[in-house]
Amino acid sequence: MQNIKQNISLKPYNTFGMNVKATRFLTINSAKELQTLISTEKGPYFILGGGSNMLLTQDVAALVLKNEIKERKIIRDFKHSVYVAAGGGEDWHQFVLWCIKNGLGGIENLSLIPGTLGAAPIQNIGAYGVELKDVFHALEAVNLKTGKLEQFKKEDCQFAYRESVFKRKLKGKYFITRVILKLSKSPKVNVSYGAIKNTLAEMKVKTPTIKEVSKAVIKIRSSKLPDPAKIGNSGSFFKNPELSAGAFKKLQKAYPQIPNYPLPDGRVKVPAGWLIEQAGWKGKRIGDAGCHAKQALVLVNHKNAKGKDILKLSEKIQASVKKKFGVALSREVNVF
Ligand SMILES: Cc1cc2nc3c(=O)[nH]c(=O)nc-3n(C[C@H](O)[C@H](O)[C@H](O)COP(=O)(O)OP(=O)(O)OC[C@H]3O[C@@H](n4cnc5c(N)ncnc54)[C@H](O)[C@@H]3O)c2cc1C
Predict the structure, then answer these.
(1) What residues act catalytically?
(2) What is residue 1's predicted lDDT score, i.e. its pLDDT?
(3) Does the Cβ of 334 fall within 6 Å of ligand 1?
(4) Residue of 52, 162, 164, 236 with the most ligand 1 atoms within 8 Å of its CB, for mutation
(5) pLDDT exceeds 80 at position 2
(6) Given pLDDT bands bounded at 50, 70 and 90, which one contains residue 225?
(7) How far is the CA of 321 from the centre of ligand 1 (A)?
(8) For residue range 233-257, what is the model confidence (pLDDT) as tens digits?
């Protein structure tokens, strides 16, 4: 393939700003282009979207495939709902704004999440009481071994909290080229999250539209989360642990003030950020690898940290949370 670039820095392509090299790098503009590549170039491949959920700890020897597949199209139009198809390389937030402009509701609470459409199903992105799975209909993906374009329905994706089959059994096996969402033409807004309610009240909005909910979410996120353009990060580094009722009761006895969110299946979710903060890590740094001062769940690259420095810091945090609370934190970010 003549368009393959050699030895390029991935620094502009990952939000942690890790300056690692890709031996070979190729942008993919269509499913067809990818299928042609697979028929001529055997892997291994490394799929890159917006690079906002990865920590690169070393140079990448596999052929990097940067998803640039663009499309935004209403493919089925009903009285109250539509099916919208989007290319895997579309920017998620720009897509959300486009939907809002077209009066299509369902993803306004997911405003300002960085990254691409194609990566959104990988960890079933979520924020402020909404997850991708709530509006997901189907996706198309190219099997990287056979080159075949396959369709996955919602039930095939095995969505769970920041999880899907593409993070487990099918990890690295499929390149998601197209995502189809079912959105509402007469949307009911979801303002169940306290922070959204309070921000809308500050904005003096009584009966919010999807546009106003999006604005409120953008306001909250901008005040709370570090902007990767200013300080390298990948959003939440860890997942919020989901504990059995028994394990949670024990913990609550020792720490009565522990925040908690009971889940429908009887387990209890506790905020990883609170555990990390109580373990004394909020605002701490080891060299240029740091735990953010406003949001302990976010690890940051103050300037020249290497991927390995961030990884080491994350392991220290995991060990100290385990020691203090007996809770194992698992990573949300993909480490390479
Ligand atoms: C400031 C900040 C805030 C964030 N807030 C949230 C949040 O509120 N909620 C949330 O859920 N996430 C959040 N994230 C994480 C991130 O935005 C999402 O996980 C996003 O979906 C990642 O998209 P990406 O295109 O950047 O993926 P990348 O980082 O490029 O890739 C992530 C993984 O998916 C694989 N992959 C990427 N594209 C494809 C594809 N087309 N097919 C197959 N595999 C693929 C990659 O190989 C990699 O393993 C945040 C990140 C940042 C930096």
Answers:
(1) 162, 236, 332
(2) 64
(3) yes
(4) 52
(5) no
(6) very high
(7) 25
(8) 999 999 999 999 999 999 999 999 9
Domains of the chain: 5-67 (3.30.43.10), 72-184 (3.30.465.10), 194-224 (no CATH), 232-335 (3.90.78.10)
Model's pTM, two decimal places? 0.96
The C-alpha atoms of residue 335 and residue 328 are separated, in whole angstroms, by 17
Quick one: pLDDT at residue 319? 98
**CA–centroid distance, residue 206 to ligand 1 (Å):** 33
